[in-house]
Amino acid sequence: MTNNHHLHAPMRSAPQSFAAKLLLLLTLLPLSLAALAFILQWRGGIPDPTTRWSPPGSHHLFPGMESSPLSSAAVRSSSSDCVNLGRSASPSFPYYQNWKFDSGSNLRPKILITTSTSAGLDQILPWMFYHKVIGVSTFYLFVEGKAASPEVSKVLESIPGVKVIYRTKELEEQQARSRIWNETWLSSFFYKPCNYELFVKQSLNMEMAIVMARDAGMDWIIHLDTDELLHPAGAKEYSLRQLLQDVPGNVDMVIFPNYESSVERDDIKEPFTEVSMFKRNYDHVPKDTYFGMYKESTRGNPNYFLTYGNGKSAARIQEHLRPNGAHRWHNYMKTPNEIKLEEAAVLHYTYARFSDLTSRRDRCGCKPTKEDVKRCFMLEFDRAAFIIASTATEEEMLKWYHEHIVWDDKDIKIKLLRKGILTRIYAPMAIIQGLRESGVFSSVITSAPTTLSKEKFLATIDSSNSSRATASVSHPTRTIGRSRENKATARKTLDVEVAEFQEFAVPPLAPPVIDFNQLTIEV
After folding, report:
1. Quick one: which H or E segment has residue 275?
2. What one-character DSSP code corresponds to residue 333?
3. I need a labelling partner for 221 at 20 to 30 A (CA). Which of 130, 165, 487, 515 fits?
């Protein structure tokens, strides 16, 4: 019995020994890999993902970076990243050190947005970087007023892919010699104040932008205001670049129907991140629903929309392209082949802040009478808003704002949401809020140079003086063009075919209207 006991003891200890060795191996293996990774990291062999994609102490990743084509871009680590954040002319953003939003990328199509603005950084930066996220590479900013001030323009000048053009006397003289100033299709808007003058400026700036865009190798050009955001609904990855890439090659112009902001409070400060409800364009609503719910939708206002209803458009850069007002493009040699998008839209944040009432009033010197406002504003609601802002007390203005703009009635709101007249859109809000929380806007401001060059500084002063002069009178200060009839006559030497395509500029147009007194529909 004793011999048998000694015989079986080694046999029982064999499995135990194997298990102990396996346990030891499993313990040493991860420790060895960790030690190897530490050595490689210490020697600079493998960049730490935390320091590569975000600053020390931060765990934020830029939304969608995992699948973004930009994630494959080469990254060079530098011990001076923090220094570059304050000194570099090209901003470095907290969520990705050394990412410059490369405007020189070979990604196609190359999209340009041009705008005429007097807004501040609080509006321009969210507007601009939102469009960068969805695929816009280049911006031409025609600035005056606050946008042309040194503290704002120095920041705009420092952003890659942004070209700032100041409204100087030299620019006005150059535009006085432009082709469209000496043609008839825009002439009905000349020498009128306020909105008419802005419309002419926008058209002249768009003409210059086309030339610069062609020289820069752009594929598409879009004119937007800084209170408008493109909403590429239906496009893969919410990409404007993908949306335009899918447009057939024989299409010259793409129309984005506009949706209008529908505010639910009177204390909104940042519309881009506080407004999620929009009224859909009549092109995106069944006609029986549109006309059936027209009375509830307008709430006693002159039209279905407060302001314009004919959307904005993108044009393919090609020969003989010209603007056709702020909302459309045209071609001297042909009628453009255009398509209207069924899902994508441009979101118009109009009268989203209570202060928008007084800001429009302060920019225009017209008299607050029904007759005088007609020569200042093209749309009925703008005229009514100007009169109220010019004649009413603060309390009366706030009451009027609730009656005509704020959606206070929850029952009507729910009804119109169910019918598809109103809709909720959260994507722009989420993108801009994400950019703000990532520190993008503060980083852009911090990394801007402290001063402008002498030439650019003088341009800002000239532009600001020009803007103040324009705001102080009730008619355009520019009198260019009246003594240049000979140039308009010279244009008659063009081929007859070209003349056939001369048509009036497309102004801001209201949606179809129902006249309940006559029971007719006006389109």
Report:
1. none
2. S
3. 487
pLDDT at residue 512 in the model: 85
Please tell me the total number of residues recorded for the chain in this structure. 523
Which residue is associated with the tokens 């009413």?
Answer: 392
Neighbours of 201 (CB within 10 A): 20
pLDDT tens for residues 366-390? Answer: 999 999 999 999 999 999 999 999 9
Is residue 289 within 8 Å of 345, Cβ to Cβ? no
Assign 523 a pLDDT band (cuts: 50, 70, 90). low
297 contacts 423 by C-beta, under 8 angstroms: no
pLDDT score of 363: 81
pLDDT surpassing 90 at residue 109: yes
CA angle, 140 then 95 then 58, to 5°: 155
What phi and psi values does residue 483 have, to the nearest 5 degrees? -100, 20
| Integer-rounded Cα radius of gyration of the chain | 30
DSSP one-letter string for 102-153 = -TT---SS-EEEEEEE---HHHHHHHHHHHHHTT--EEEEEE-GGGGSHHHH
What single DSSP character describes residue 308?
Answer: -
CA torsion sign, 348 to 351 to 356 to 357?
A: positive
Query: Tens digits of per-residue pLDDT, 454-493?
Result: 566 566 555 555 544 444 333 343 434 333 443 333 333 3
Kindly provide the b/e burial profile for residues 439-452, where b requires at least 16 CB atoms within 10 angstroms of the residue's own CB: bbbebbbebbeeeb
407 touches 413 (CB < 8 A): yes
Contacts of 65 (CB under 8 A, 6+ apart): 53, 71, 96
Q: Rounded to whole angstroms, how far apart are CA atoms 42 and 48?
A: 10
- How many CB atoms lie under 10 A from the CB of residue 78? 12
Pair of tokens at residue 195: 């909105």
Measure the CA angle with vertex 17, ends 15 and 21; round to 5°: 115
pLDDT confidence of residue 93 = 40
Q: What percent of the chain has pLDDT over 90?
A: 62
The closest alpha carbon to 423, from 343, 369, 361, belongs to 343
Burial of 88 (0-12, 13-18, 19+ CB in 10 A): middle
Q: What's the pLDDT tens digit per position in 283-304?
A: 999 999 999 999 999 999 999 9
Give the type of residue at 311: G
Q: Which of 158, 173, 226 has the alpha carbon at shortest distance from 462?
A: 173
